[in-house]
Amino acid sequence: MEKHAVCIPFPAQGHIRPMLNLAQILHSRFDFHITFVNAQHIQNTLFQSQPPSTNSSTNTNTTFIFESIPEGVDDPENLLSVIDSILTHRRMELPLRELLSELCSKDDPLNPPRGPMHRLPRPPVTCMITDVVMTMFALDVADNMGIPAVVLETASACGSICYLHLRELFEKGIIPLPEANCLTNGYLETEIDLISSLRGLRLKDMPTQLRTTDPDDMMLNAAISCTLNAIKSKAILINTFDSLDQDVLEELKTIISPNICSIGPLHLLAKDIDPTSDDTNLAIGSIFSSKNEDNECIIKWLDLQEPSSVLYVSFGTIAVINQEQLVEFAWGLANSQHKFLWVVRSDLVRGGEASSINVPIEFEKEIKGRSLLVSWCDQERVLAHPSVGGFLTHCGWNSTIESISSGKPMICCPFIAEQVTNSWYICNVLGIGMKMSEDLKRGEVERVVKELMEGMKGKEMKKKAMELRNLAIEATMSPYGSSFVNLENLVNDVYNTAHTRKYVKFSTCMPETSK
Questions:
Q1: Catalytic residue among 4, 33, 131, 338
Q2: CATH code of domain 3-155+235-288+479-499
Q3: Choice among 4, 15, 165, 385 that is catalytic
Q4: CA–CA separation, 156 and 233 (whole Å)
């Protein structure tokens, strides 16, 4: 029996990237057929400038296929609208059922497959891998059709265990916040004693979805519901490694029944896959690297710098600041007198023009010749470069695990969701980061940059970060590494389960959902 995984990421880059890494690993290392199901607008965006071989209708490699399903919203780039569609209306459920029905059914002259599917023969589906957000409908589809399902949790282990306890905090009346001034009156300093592996954690260190007074808040309820759905799956996969999060992983295993599998860092597991081995791998490698020429210029600039002399600065793909914060932050970097590489997205400033960012002319003159501002870079390559000595980050988990894998200490500037939990964990448990105040004032920015790049604390954090880097490599770069073994065991388990289950053909009788 051939192995065939259907992968369903949430339509945001921070969720697609690890799912794509996992799919590529399963495809190249474990001989899986892959059907990668994007939301329609993501499919259009990712492949509008990509080689024709990436498209399911023209791809000659039938073992890794990209498909798409509609989001069911007017503005698919509005993530809140997409989440509402997934959480409340489940508008992506029917298209997914139809797609899976075709993938699971044998040739039937009375029921020919739609679209290009007749050109792409694939074995029956062995398992579904769904993003934790997509569990709102995907797990029901898998269960109804007899398909084993596992969940990819794109948050950190510490973020995951916090999400798991939101319902208990809700039931105890701790959240939602009793009143609006709880944001400023010290209420968020309340210590959480529910998580033994995260001693000293406060409400302010929990995911920001809890910072609401509305019990019907969509984001709070989405966080609770997605977690409760995830624990119904066969396994939960986390992009981490055993020695990084041992205490948290052990606690997770004692409080929920699904198998908890640490299978990261995924980008390291995928590192040695030859991108030129076939059309699909080549296309995958180019999906998030459409600006390769610009990136080569960045790498050449880094090549000219002294070892560990450059601070890499990036706030990820979603975080926004206002113009005043931009100016203060920029001058803080400049006043530190350290070299930096700063990714300044065109939409970084809230309410600003989408096509440009306005930094003071005096600032540009001050940093000329010693720093670089760019709109995009290949973050994995930049963090791995020996000239980079530290990372000022929003603490998204992809960025965090990439920084750890490269042995880079961090300045933590979290914005939303479990980024604040990651920041607390980086600083208080791992000891490889320092927290920067939220107002982004120039004096504070200058202080933390100097401390990281030249201070004693920065040197200590660098040493610890390098130790964790070595452990990350150990977990992924050999067949005996913990993450490789965990993934191999999961593959065998899912494969054996698939032998014992029967697929249920799609029916037009849908469960009742909100309209």
A1: 131
A2: 3.40.50.2000
A3: 15
A4: 18
